[in-house]
Amino acid sequence: MINGDISKPAIVITPYICGHSKSACVRRLANEFSQSGHSVYVLLPRGSLDTKFSLECKKLRCEVIDSEDIDTLVGLIPNKQVILAGYSLGALNICYYMTKSQQIVNRSKVTKIIMSFVEFDYNYVLKLPSRIQKGIGSCIVPYVNNNREYFYKHGISQKSIDNIVKMSTVYQYDQQITIKTWKTKSVQEYYDLVSITPMIKDIQVPALFISTADDIITGPLVPFEEMKKNNYVNSVVFNYGNHLGTATSDGRDMVCQLISQWCQ
After folding, report:
1. Name one GO molecular function term (predicted).
2. Is the torsion defined by CA of 176, 178, 184, 187 positive or negative?
3. Is 18 within 8 Å of 48 (Cβ atoms)?
4. CB–CB of 26/13 below 8 Å?
5. Which of 17, 20, 121, 241 is a Cys-bridge partner for 212, taking CB atoms 3.0 to 4.6 Å apart?
6. 10-122+196-262 architecture in CATH?
């Protein structure tokens, strides 16, 4: 948390899968907003970094769409207005919260949302070579290993956890844990439920989507036609930057600068 001017909107940053406050893109964005006098909060996923899920937690939760914590944090922030800014999975989490979630006690405080490097086609990553899929999912291994006892308590078998560690892919994680959290029959059913494209029409606050044309994880798909139908929605696509990139040689971040200007 970074304290700022309470009269300005507070900023809540939701990181990408297994991301955290020390992640480079998150630190750059937090610094950009703090220099403008905003209070900045980074919502860490439960069980991330050196933390663990509490064994007292009665609900199976994991590193997927879970908007309850967003709503709780928004309610705790003293500022009257809040801007949500998410990266990748964190961006999807924000869009779900603003359009489909039932946890909306404090949603009226949110005045703008920014969604960067979000996947518009969940199946795109499944078409990538296995070595790339394993590279993307490698961050999940320490996360599940660190929370084995919690997952065991909620009915996830040792074999399931071992499969995640062995395969080291997001798909395997979704197959063994996510669909149990969402109570869906298949991974594809879960992907269909959380697909961001159908949510675009329901966004009711100013929204900015940021993508890069060379993003190896999300692919080139950007649903411009759906975006054009909603006057709240804006979209910017950078030619280069890959996933979570766009930092220049002098250390400046084009995405952070764009977000800061758009929020003024």
Report:
1. monoacylglycerol lipase activity
2. negative
3. yes
4. yes
5. 241
6. 3-Layer(aba) Sandwich (3.40)
Cβ-Cβ contacts under 8 Å for 141 (sequence gap 6 or more):
164, 165, 168
Answer yes or no: are the C-beta atoms of 104 and 31 closer than 8 Å: no
Cα–Cα distance between 87 and 131 in angstroms, integer?
Answer: 23
What are the phi and psi torsion angles at 139 (to 5°)? -70, -20
Alpha-carbon distance of 133 to 142, in angstroms, equals 16
**Amino acid identity, residue 155?**
G
Residue 82 backbone phi and psi in degrees, to 5 = -135, 140
Q: Across the strands, what pairs with 12? A: 41, 84
The answer to which of 43-47, 56-60, 181-185 has the lowest mean pLDDT is 43-47
At residue 206, φ and ψ (nearest 5 deg) are -55, 130
- pTM recorded for the entire structure: 0.93
- Residue 249 confidence (pLDDT) above 80: no
The answer for 31, left when phi > 0, alpha when psi is -120 to 50, beta otherwise, is: alpha
Q: Please, which residues bridge with residue 11 across strands?
A: 40, 83
> Which of the four pLDDT bands, split at 50, 70 and 90, describes residue 247?
low
The residue with tokens 């990553």 is 125
What is the phi/psi pair of residue 13, to 5°?
Answer: -105, 125
Minimal CA–CA distance to 67: which of 26, 43, 97, 91? 97
Nearest to 11 by CA among 20, 226, 21, 29: 29
